[in-house]
Design goal:
By secondary structure, the chain is α+β, with helices and mostly antiparallel strands. The chain has two domains: 123 residues, no CATH class; 121 residues, Sandwich (Immunoglobulin-like), CATH 2.60.40. 53% of the residues lie in helices and 23% in strands. It is built from three helices and ten strands.
Amino acid sequence: MNLFTNKKKVLTPVLLILVIFLISFTYKKNNDYNTLKQMFVEDKKELQQELDQMSTNYKELSVKNKKLSRRIIREINKIIYLKDSVNKLDVNSFNLIRQYRKRVSKLQQHNRELFAKVDSLNSVNDLLRKDNIVAKKSLDEKNEITTKLSKQNNSLAKINQKLKAQIEPAKKIQTSNINAVAMRSKSSGKLFSTTKSNKTDAFRINFKLLKNEITTPGNKNIHIQVQDKKNNVIASKKEVRLNNKKKIKCSDEIVANYKNEELEVLSLILVDRDDMNEGEYKINVFIDGNFTSSSVVTLR
């Protein structure tokens, strides 16, 4: 009996210590679990926030480069997939948090590289945009100058046209009074003036090209036309086109070397006396395709 009592006295403290140890161990385990759970929740929340921020940063990127745009879309899809995986984690998967954190770190590294490329590209685009603005401004200034010059040229062209219209008539060479005489031929071959139509063998026409300092010097084409009272051209030699596009027949053609000084012109137009009739004969003079002057010879 004494032996049993002694054993009981020995076991009681041991059991008490064991119970206390088990209670203490259980409390510590529970406390560790709660701490682990809290750490897991915080890590999971932190990972989710990082992924959300990365996704937001990607979505705010403005990239016109198609290749970079496709890469950004791929990175966003990776983040979405990783975020879904993190959301499914529970406290029992605490060890996987480290693996996911490594993947997030890798994504962040890709993030930094991609953002650096985008920043570089945007910087280049900004420089190009600035260059384009400067070039556009320069082009606008040039266009403005061109427009002003065009308006000035149009204005000068109109002034020049007016001056030309004013000068053009002054450039035409004028003639002195036309001296036209009907001539008859004697058997000796000499010519004498006459007023009889049935004795007329030629018209002797002379006049002067007057001085003109404005017109261009050089050869001047002179056409002389003799018309009867029915406007038929006498002794028609050739047909010419005037500056007004009208065609006429002329009785004589002379080329005179004009030097802006007064110049004598003489024409002798032979006719058939059998074709001559009584009445007025008009003498017309054209210089370089322009009508200049006329005179009349009356035959009996």
